[in-house]
Sequence to fold (685 residues):
Amino acid sequence: MTELEIKGLTVEVDGKQILKGLDLVVTKGETHALMGPNGSGKSTLAYAIMGHPAYNVTDGSILVQGTDIGELPPDERAKMGLFLAMQYPTEIPGVSLTNFLRTAINATREEDLPVRQFMTSLREHMSALQMDERFLQRNVNEGFSGGEKKRFEILQMAMLQPQIAVLDETDSGLDVDALKVVAEGINRLRGPQLGVLLITHYTRILRYITPDHVHVMVDGRVVQSGGPELAAELEEGGYEHLRVSA
Amino acid sequence: MVRIKDLSEEDVLAISDFYGEPEWLRDRRQVAFKAFADLEWPNSRDEEWRYTNPARLHLERPVLLEAAAIPARQEGIVAGAVGALAGEVRIVDGGVAQAVVADEATAQGVVVTDLVTAAHEHAALVQSHLGTVVGADAKFEAANLAAFTNGAFAYVPADVELTEPIAITVQATGDGSVLPRVLIVLGPHAKASFYVDHSGDAQATVIEVVEVVVAEGATARIVNAQDWGPDVDHIAAHTGVVGSNGDYRGLEVNLGGRTVYVRPDVRLDHPGGNGELLGVYFCDEGQQVEMRSLVHHNASHTTSDLMYKGALQGDSRATFYGTIRIEEHAKATASDETNRNLILTDKARADSIPVLEILNSDVVRCGHHSSVGQVDELQMFYLESRGIPREEAARLLVFGFFGEVTDRIQLPGVAEVILAEVEREVRSGPTNLMDQRRR
Fold:
């Protein structure tokens, strides 16, 4: 079943066109890797999918289970099962991690999850991600190291149980050990109920997460799609030859 | 009819007669009146009134001398936060409607009563402290000392530590002007907390003084909270004077009123004294609030910390003007002040002016931090992307913003009621923050 379908999407940021007619389909149960050089528009796509107000959709459409979500605010998109793990998670002083997660979960489920059930589930996922319980006392992303921020993004994904997760450069800024923990966290969540769009510049994370499909993005469009072998080719040859053909 | 704008000596004597005061107090009022008469009315060209135009103040409202009946409904925010009390004084309009003190506190020598009764029954105490913290140096302070409409007196003797707080409520139920005065005296090594609560929906002008004497080694915690209705003008001096190794912790909560001008000051006159001034304000449509604070390091090894945080919506305006003054003879002091403002709507405006007057070079630490900003759209997007609706996200951010202050409030029950009020205000206000496509 098609969960996320992007058709001819063009997006402007500050009047500058970044996406120039992008097509992509992500189905539940599949993992797609979206690769491309810096400036190709990968993060723009991620933000546009989630509805960031600075990313202006000028043409094309984003459909979730056949419904055009172009006019929906970000929280409505989250309620439809979309999730974005951000490249640079925002620090939110004064808002505790626990309070934030409970508010988010109750908002997306549209009913209150009993506190005990919430805490049990939270502790399980934290332990799997090798996150110390002391995190519970901290404010959202405040003073977190790069690795802690990325783990927290995956923790949120685990707790919110989205149907389609967009992971924007979740591998960036991680050392090998942290990368393994985060990749394992993502692999644990993969399954027939989840579609993943893994956005990355490097093939490094693909050693731990094997995608079903690989897409290459250059200058605001998907220029090539294939299986996992495409990632291996990119590791050998880089993006240069694609830039020419684009 | 007595009015503040044309207050006369005859008015002052009539007020003294009305309350049946002892001779010495009548003389005090007269001396204060002379100071009052010699001072010019403030105008907007005065540095101290640059941000709040005194012309906004309703000084023509008749002065009320009688205590009205205690309203059935408790409207104040902090009065409801406390359970058992060591004592309570309820000021309603121009007089004291009720003053009670717990037997246990009385047995320890604690006095909680109205100011005029105290002037009769505890003359020596009142005589030696009244007007020593807030005198008649400025127009409104002089007006209060000359024409105060009764008030409250609380005394905690040496070495007495009260576990339960003393509550003083100031309520404006009738249209007019009132000049309540509160005198709090803590003897050496005494320890007590005070909840001073202001509320009322009348068309009222309140010219108030709360003076607190903290003797050596004593600790006073005091919250001055106001949640006035939209037609109340409030001019107040809330000041503590701290003895050696004494500790004064003042919290100002400003939520209501039309024009509010408060001086939350602390004077560290003796070595080792500490002052902590915290403030929370939330301003709505039509409101103008100024907090003009002075932290006065007037002795060596004194320490202070000030943190005021406010949020503004509608067309409201807030000014924080905070001075830390370190005298030449005050060596090895440590001080810090922080003021942060969160602007929730385009029409709201905040001025944040920290001033450091440091007259010697032997300073351990003296810092200031000041900001006026809007809700961070990156933070909003982060919360919204997790399914949290925009209004709820804004509420979380406003709470988080105030958390830095409310987490430091040690008075039981107070942080909770403040956050509940903040929530009510955030929900009530028209904020363009709610605009989806705002950038």
Remarks:
- Chain A has one domain: 2-94+162-245.
- Chain A touches chain B at residues 50-54, 73-75, 77-79, 83-84, 86, 89-95, 99-100, 103-104, 107-108, 139-140, 156, 160 (CB under 8 Å).
- The first strand of chain A starts at residue 2 and ends at 13.
- Chain A is about 35% helix and 30% strand.
